[in-house]
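Lecture 7 notes. Example A: sequence first, then its structure tokens.
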Amino acid sequence: MAVLIQKLHPALRVGLQPVLAASGLRLFSRQGHWDRGSTLHCVAMALALLGRLSDPVDVRLDGQDSWFWDCAWPHYLHGLTLSELVSFIWELNAGVRPVAAHGNSTTVLRFCTQELARGSPVIVCWHAPDQTCHTGLVTGTEGRQDRRTYVPHTLLLLDPAETEPQLAAYNARLEAGKRRRALQVTTRMTQEVVLADAVSIRLLKLPEPAALDLGRRRRIGPALTGRRE
């Protein structure tokens, strides 16, 4: 008999609000009414899940995470396209690399499931027929477990444009499965949307410990820059 279950990102803990398991700090970063920075909020939350940002809610100019705001503020009002998002993640030099996927809703669902299983947060992009693209951070999947077989059918999201979830790890759902179009479900609406793009953020593998020339004390190994090799 198949059982309905949810699989969440391992760095996430659910309480009154979703928090970072390592620190207990709140994870949800909400988009403002004036900006189009949903993608930037998603990147901040993803980096926090990977341990590259300590507090995705507080990126003040004088805080320890101010470096992220320095990179994000030029894009805050107009947002980022998918290709700009990939470049933005590389240019952060935060020890992570983006991996993009494109296809139908089934392809994106499969990609997100695989990336979450390896601990990599995923940002997905969708749009209704008469609307611009919007992004959300995938915090988990929902599906049916039949013995050892897990078949996901829904992406669980933190949508920066929605209110902070209570007693849950998500505030939006994208029900994909075998549907031609995904079904977006929030507390405010239910509508069919086109889900075709996703960007995973993976941790870069650290280089091997650098060898040292004991005579000249010169580092021989490569430096970690966060750039594409």
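Example B, a different protein, same format:
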Amino acid sequence: MSRPAFRCRPSSLAGVPESPGTTGQDGRRTSPDASVTDHGHIRGRSRTEQGRPHGPRFEFPGRRLIYYVMLAGLTFPVFLAIVPLFFQLQNFGLLNTRPGLILTYVAFALPFTMFFLYSFFRSLPHDVYEAALIDGAGDWRAFFQVMLPMARPGMAAVAIFNFLGLWNQFLLPVALNTDQDMWVLTQGMAAYASSQVYDIDYGALFAAIVITVVPVLIVYCVFQRRIAGSVSQGTFR
């Protein structure tokens, strides 16, 4: 599909009307991990993208404070939040549930996503955004139809980073997901390795390793074209 491109027409600047912007899941071990990981990085990325038009581009009170609070989240060790998280999820009835684990993943993925995409969006050419506004696009329409397609390489990169981090997460599921029926892949792998002791079934072990590696390769193959793509490719046509 071709994306709409906005061209600057200096001769029609005086007659351009202003238009409002438009707003727009071996089985038991692997499937919970895949769904939780996917929901975690997708929701974390979408929350950050929705805050983007009022981040790098617009000035508003508390703008820098929000950015530094998110940045401070990168320095917060995960193990310090285990005990408070356990009791909070227990109070809300989300302990040993997928939604509780997904919300926790989103919370820990959001600071890095914000930090990464904030700098990426600031590096995008501002002239294209201004040209969209001149052609009558509102702020939200210019973001979704012009700036967001240009940011696909950055979003693909942060999606891979978040997926790798959440897919290999072990401490949070062990502490917050103790129900064996809801175990994620890392918990199943750890339980299998500890049950073998000195009698190791290498065939089953290598099969488990393949189950661990293949989803990561699939995600990379899906997003690697976006990473290799140029930021401005397809913007001017």
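Note on Example B: Residues 1-31, 46-55, 230-237 have pLDDT under 50 and may be disordered. The first helix runs from residue 30 to 50.
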